[in-house]
Design goal:
Blueprint: H1 21-29, H2 37-47, E1 53-62, E2 70-78, E3 87-92, H3 99-111, H4 113-116, E4 121-125, H5 130-135, H6 157-169, E5 175-179, H7 185-198, E6 212-216, H8 222-232, E7 246-247, E8 250-251, E9 257-260, H9 262-265, E10 276-281, H10 291-311
Amino acid sequence: MSASPIHPAYPIGQPLQAWGVVERQQWLSQQCVQRSYQAEVVAPLLANLPAQAQLIEYGTLDYTQLGLSSYPLYAVKSCQWQPERPTVLVTGGVHGYETSGVHGALQFIAEAFAVYSEQVNLLVLPCISPWGYETINRWNPLALDPNRHFIAASPAPESAAAMACVAQYAPELLLHIDLHETTDTDNSEFGPAKAARDGVAFDWHAIPDGFYLVGDTERPEPDFQQALIQAVAQVTHIALPDEHGCIIGEPLQQHGVINYAKRELGLCAGMSAARYVSTTEVYPDSPHASPAQCNRAQLVTITAAIDYVLRHPASASAT
């Protein structure tokens, strides 16, 4: 049986006291650039853009008022958009530190976008949080989690820009795949930081070793989720539940699948009325998975999801 380890107090703020302006500024001062959005995301995107794709700069993430950089935000859209086809949204890098979400989306664009754009309408946002990507961070510079702020009048500019892009270019979705990871740093850094910021005790959960999916409690579609798990199992191992039958504290719904109330929580995968939605959770810290496997698992999830929709044509008319 796994026991929750004892964690020292987070080094910013006072225990059980929510952060104010001073603590948030202290946190921001400790963040630093560790990799390049331009070199690792934008350059490969431009180099591998298929002829069937249109590059859209859907906004600019401007943090210059905080002494930081500004970042162009990119989406990739099917050139031949046909209203009668199913429309598919792929989002990556909502949490910038979840590397395979970004690179899995880029790999899909480079390797599979051209083929699937002949059958479905595609919109891909490969890196929604470029500052988070560069600083290997879950939050944005305002100490906000973009994946809790896909809401009306969002205070997170990453979320607001992504929602505006989707509303403009793909307002009627059938399928949305949101690419994420669950990392060991969720327990060592990001979970404790969130608890300190909010003035609450840290709710520790064991990090599952393996891939899993997060469906939507309102739109669970278990056959769809099962098809994705079966496809990814050919690439990497699927996470098993803990001794309580849970993954990260949530009851297992079926092999490798838990559900969240995505709209209620303000999650990226809850921003639309798409019938089919799923959030990937890759485990990059596993001794049994390489970075290439993690990226491939993201790619396979996307292609398996599109294949499922194409095998069930009646779903294309669903709303």
